[in-house]
Amino acid sequence: xxxxARASLLLVEDDANLGATLRERLASAGYxxxxxxxxxxxxxxxxxxxxGLVILDVALPxxxxxxxxxxxxxxxxxxxxxxxxxxxxxxxxxxxxxxxxEDYVVKPFHFDELVLxxxxxxxxxxxxxAVPDPMDVGRARVHFGALKVEREGRTTALGAREAAxxxxxxxxxxxxxxxxxxxDEVWPRDEYPTPRTVDNFVLKLRRIVEADPENxxxxxxxxxxxxxxxxxxxx
Length: 235
Description:
It contains nine helices and 14 strands. It has 235 residues and is an alpha/beta fold. It folds into two domains: 2-129, Rossmann fold (3-Layer(aba) Sandwich), CATH 3.40.50; 135-229, Winged helix-like DNA-binding domain superfamily/Winged helix DNA-binding domain (Arc Repressor Mutant, subunit A). A five-stranded parallel β-sheet has the order 2-1-3-6-7, sandwiched between helices. Strands 8-9-10-11 form a four-stranded antiparallel β-sheet, with no helix packed on it. A hairpin with a 4-residue loop joins strand 9 and strand 10 (148-151). The radius of gyration is 18 Å and the shape is elongated. It starts with a helix and ends in a 6-residue tail after the last strand.
């Protein structure tokens, strides 16, 4: 409960009954919760306070929650986003996660499951707050919030999931991180990722940060365990 009491949430929900119920139940669970009924109200609250997490509907009376999620990523990189919406088709779920959301929960939902997903998102944010942005990894300068990489005078886009994986490894820099830890921290459970998913994303990251991706010295494989981002790799 002490951990929850430190978490400040912004609930963005235009349904009066659901918003009031959620605010009451979240408060009972130990979260400090501010309720906004529109994008306009949400932007005002974000400008006045710092939140650990935004619980965000997609369909709002004055626009799309997707737009606000992009603003949160750019303007408040230490704040996580969990979508809570009736719009559950796969294309929208993928779009929401690609914007950098911690999770995407579809209505109707079970309150305890929502809390679990929120806590996972808050835990990931605590890890990420310890990682500078931008950060030099090998020969690349990685801008996590802006989802881009600068290397040898060129700028390339960085996928949201690639950025999340690299940032998580950076938060544990020097430690060996197991594949199952990576899956728990970086991928929502309903995407059904596998250890092979992690391996494929690591291969993508090596092409970004390693001078010789076939012989990595920065993002190392620890056979049978997982991966290690070296403290002092020179790329």
